[in-house]
Amino acid sequence: MKKIIAALAFAAVSACATQAPVESSIAEPETVQVMVLGSFHMGNPGQDVANAEIENMLTDKRQAEIAAVADALAEFKPTVIAVERITEAPDYIDPKFQAFTPEMLKENPDERTQIGYRLANELGVTRVYGVDEQPSEGEPDYFPFGELMAHAEATGQGEALQTQIEDIQQLMADFSGMQEGNSVAELLMMFNSGGELSSPDFYYRTFYFDRGEAQPGAELQAYWFMRNAKIFSKLVQVTKPGDRVVIVYGAGHKFWLDHFAENTPGFTRVDPLPYLEKAAGE
Q1: Exposure of 204 by Cβ count < 10 A (0-12 exposed, 13-18 middle, 19+ buried)?
Q2: pLDDT tens digit string along 2-15?
Q3: Which single residue of 29, 240, 251, 275 has CA 20 to 30 Å from 282?
Q4: pLDDT digits over 93-108, tens only?
Q5: Are 75 and 275 in contact (CB under 8 A)?
C-alpha cells in the first residue's frame, strides 16, 4: 500500500512539474515606487552632530555636474518630488517650489533646490511636497542627544561617547577631502551605496551607554525612528498607486526611509545608484 501511495505521489509531482503554467488573469496591483536619494547638505547649514565642509556648489563646474545628476534621475520619470521641508498638513505642498525660478539655481546651493526643484522643473512635475517632521508643542525631541551626553557624563562614559563623536567627525572630514577630484554624482554615490556615510551604526552603538532603566540610547533610537516613520507617513498620504517618487533627504535618513519603502505594503524601493553611476559616466 505504501508503494502505491508513493507511486501516486510521484506521478502527481511529475504532472505538476510538466504541466504548462497557467497565466493569471489578475493584474498585479500598481505600487508606489520610491527612490530615496540620500544627500550631503550642499548648503552646509551645520546642524548635525558632525558636519562636512562643502565646496561651493554654485560654480559652473559643480552646476554642470548637478545638471548631469538631474538628467540621469529624470530617466526614472518621477511623478512626485519630496524634500526635507516642513509644510502645512494635510496637503504638504511645498510653497518654496511654487515660488521657484531657474535663476535660483545660481543663488541657492541647497540640495532641495539644486536637485529636487531642478528635477521637478525639468520634467514639469507639479506635485512637490515637503514631508519633513519636527516636534511641535507637546511632542518629543526626535534627537535627544543632549540627554545621552548628560547620562554618559554622569555614568563615567563621557570619554567613550566623545570618541564615537570624533569618529563621525573624522568621517565627515574625510568626505570633505574627497570632494576635490570627485564629481557631484560620485559624491552622492558615497552616500547611497550602503557604506559608512549612510550607516545607522552610530544609533545602534548608543545601546551600550544605557544603564538599567536609564536608557537614553534606546530612547534616542526610538525617537529617530519615529521622526522617519512620520516622514514616510506623510509620503503615504500624498501618493497614490502608480506614482514614481524621488525623495531628496539628508543621508542620515536614508536607512530608515529605504526600510519603509521596502517594507510598506503597496510601496517599492528603487535604488538610485544605477542612475548616479550613469551621471558619473560609469
Answers
A1: exposed
A2: 444 344 343 443 44
A3: 251
A4: 999 999 999 999 999 9
A5: yes
- How far apart are the C-alpha atoms of 268 and 33, rounded to whole Å? 5
Lowest mean pLDDT of 86-90, 199-203, 264-268, name the range. 199-203
* E-strand stretches of 89-197: 128-130
Q: Cβ(45)–Cβ(255) under 8 Å?
A: no
Q: Rg (Cα) of the chain, in Å, rounded?
A: 23
For the entire predicted model, the pTM comes to 0.87
Q: For residue 277, what is its C-alpha cell?
A: 553611476
Tell me, what DSSP letter sits at residue 238? Answer: H
What pLDDT sits at residue 8? 38
> How many whole angstroms separate alpha carbon 218 and alpha carbon 264?
24
CB 72 within 8 A of CB 185: yes
Instruction: Report whether 121 contacts 96 (CB < 8 A).
Output: no
